[in-house]
Amino acid sequence: MVILSNSGSLREKDDKCDPLRFSVVINTDNRIAYLKRTLSGLRRLTYPYFEVCVVAGPTPDGTREFLAKGPDDIKVAHCEVRNLSVSRNIGIAMSDGDIVVFIDDDSVPEPEWLADLAKSYTADDVGAVGGFVYDHTGLKFQARFVTTNRLGYPAEWGEPAPHLNFPYSIDVPHLLGTNCSFRKSALIKIGGFDEEYEYFLDETDVCCRINDAGFKIVQRSDGFVHHKYAPSHIRDEKRIISNWYPLIKNRIYFGLRNGRAHHGVDDIVGAGIGDARNWEHVVLVGAKHGTYSSEDVERFYRQADAAIVDGVERANQPAKLLTSDCVTRHFQPFLPYQLIRDMESRKVICFVTQDYPPEQNGGIARNISQLARSMAEEGHHVHVMTKARENASIDYEDGVWVHRVEIQEHRQPDYQSIAARDLPREFWNYSLTMLAQVADVDARRKVDAVYCPLWDCEAIAFLADGRFPLILALQTTMKLWLESRPDRLADSEWMRIFGDPIVETERMIMNNAEMIHANSRAIVDDLRRGYDVCLPYEKIYFSPHCMEDWASQYNEKDGGDLVRLLFVGRLESRKGIDVLLAVAPRILERFPNVVFDIVGDDTIPRADGGTYKKDFLDLELAPDIKSRVIFHGRVDEERLRYFYGNCDLLVAPSRYESFGLVYLEALMFGKPVIGGVGGGGGEVITDGETGLLVAPGDTDELEQAIVTLLSDAGLRAAMGRAARADYGRRFTVQPMVADLVSAIDLLAERRAK
């Protein structure tokens, strides 16, 4: 087959050997953050034979500068007017693929997107192919099988409409503009987009003309794209329309261009007038409720009047189609877009966690977030399943597909284990809901591994089900937590309902896990002793938590002579906050330039119903002492980074930490650390070099350690430098990712035997 490219050269295409080449066109204006996300999603496609053509609009939002300095595998052009059809014609002109595919700058494709679309280009008469589009929730479809009539009105069908693929059909298969592809030769034949359509009915017009030219339009039930509805000059962030002119004008123009074989002029113009009346109702009701101002109402009437006149007049003028001059000015040879990783080495991994940023920033949440994002940066396909705090959704964040899931009621399985049978129902509901989510992902792309914390028995359904290779992450468990909660341990009813079943289920999970991730050797030793479990080394891979370098952006310390001591963690006994607050008044009295910043959930009640924050604030202390202990409560990640960068030392005297993520975070910022010797603290903090270790619950030892560092600025500085160097040696993200990939490979080998 011989294809004439835009450059005028002849290219021989062997249909059996030469795969289809796609030109992905992104038309963007004033959405640089969304554009970057779309480009990120394209890096993770499974289909490698495509180029990316970005047409940037006139708004000066930094997009042009980003593209000028950005990746050199993106073809760039500029459109000086806010007219989507003009921009799309420039995209067609600059393309050099067999297929031109359009995706909006506020959309992200799923990895199989182009591979799915390519399956339908099986014959030369296939002129257009499109897939399904998810709305902003990521759960519901914006549209599925839609047709549009010759007045441009849509109808939803329950199945594709190939029987309508004939010229001048009154109903035409429709493709949404954010997920539509066209054979380039077909686009050239029909003249591309009609530039009269600045917005609205633009791709509908193209579908009609493709159909009337004798090409088939294929509607697929896959080829998924997620559309987030970003604000624009047409609509605001609440999706409130502010420009009615193209909506009314284009209805009339479209009907007069495409519908005269089926409708009279009066009917077509009447459709536009009907739209105007509907919009009038919306605007007037909105004005009563404050959505629109009186100026908006007047502007609407001016636009509606002009739209009706212009729609009729311009339909009697020549269509504004793609020109040869546009092609000559903008054509660029094919430029392959580089994928992050080839398909053969790409893993599909699902992380399961109750908490995830930005809604939750506890240790497990931050660690799994880091691990997920680091895996995604290496080109692996990553999903995170977490509990929805508000509305359920699926979002693409930092290369990770984050599923925020509403927990469903499930029938509790009948397992032989007494522990599993007695586990509280909410634990089963959570784990079974997450299992169903992973199964949905696996139905589209084979899941290589599930990574799940031991905390709250999150892995129980995956272990019982057995379909998916499971990596169990060790953290502080119920039994270790109870060591700092004697009140709970003494509550026989609470232990019967919650404590004992959870402890026994944790033991069962550890005994039966295929692969275990231990972030320290201390946690393994402590769990072996506490639970009387074997935990053989051949089932364990040791890999400390690691973190991307926050400090490069947040290490600016505020000026002044104050020395800031930072605590980060939940205000509960296990974190040692009681010990720290006990010594704080004496420290503050001795050092008048010291301030304590207490960061973390300070609302957690003790057994007596009180909180450590309230107890401290109720103390009869001098105002100068009390005012220098500042309780900040829970903070988001941005604010947390600020506190690390602004402190002089971290004091977190935990009675037990399975690893001690806060210690690592302080090392990263080059801050000396005072921490508890229990658990993993001794494996993160090098005593006497990067900080000082203290015995759990020992107020005298803690006070002496704080005095030592507050009294010697030179020692603090030396330990800070050593801390930063230790972070660089042991705790950067690359080894963590490599360890996880190796564990997944080992799991696959074992399952294959």
Give the helices and strands, then pairings.
Layout lengths: L1 E3 L5 E3 L9 E7 L3 H11 L7 E7 L6 H7 L5 E4 L5 H11 L4 E4 L4 E3 L3 H6 L7 E5 L2 E2 L6 E3 L1 E5 L4 E4 L13 E4 L5 E4 H7 L11 H11 L3 E4 L5 E3 L17 H14 L6 H24 L5 H22 L8 H7 L17 E5 L10 H15 L3 E7 L5 E5 L2 E6 L12 H5 L2 H20 L4 E5 L6 H6 L4 E4 L4 H5 L3 H4 L2 H21 L2 E4 L2 H11 L8 E3 L8 H4 L8 E6 L8 H14 L3 E6 L12 H7 L4 H4 L2 E5 L3 H10 L2 E4 L8 H8 L4 E4 L4 H4 L6 E4 L4 H12 L2 H18 L2 H20 L1
Parallel strand pairs: 3-4, 3-6, 4-5, 8-15, 9-16, 17-18, 17-21, 18-20, 21-22, 22-23, 23-24, 25-26, 25-28, 26-27, 28-29, 29-30
Antiparallel strand pairs: 1-2, 6-14, 7-16, 8-14, 9-10, 11-12, 11-13, 19-20
Helix pairs in contact: 3-10, 7-8, 7-9, 8-9, 11-28, 20-26, 24-27
InterPro entries: Glyco_trans_1 (IPR001296), Glyco_trans_2-like (IPR001173), Glyco_trans_4-like_N (IPR028098), Glycosyltransferase_grp1 (IPR050194), Nucleotide-diphossugar_trans (IPR029044)
Protein name: Glycosyltransferase
Keywords: Transferase
Beta-strand segment tally: 30
Q: Under the CATH scheme, which architecture of the largest domain would be assigned?
A: Alpha-Beta Complex
How many domains? The number is 3
Class of the largest domain, according to the CATH hierarchy? Alpha Beta
CATH superfamily of the largest domain: Spore Coat Polysaccharide Biosynthesis Protein SpsA, Chain A
Task: Calculate the terminal CA-CA distance, rounded to whole Å.
Answer: 47 Å
Walk across the major sheet and give the strand order: 19-20-18-17-21-22-23-24
SS-based class:
alpha/beta
Number of helices: 28
CATH topology of the largest domain: Spore Coat Polysaccharide Biosynthesis Protein SpsA, Chain A
The pLDDT mean sits at 92
What does the main sheet amount to? Answer: 8 strands, mixed
What share of residues are in beta strands?
Answer: 15-25%
Helix share bin:
40-55%
Shape: elongated
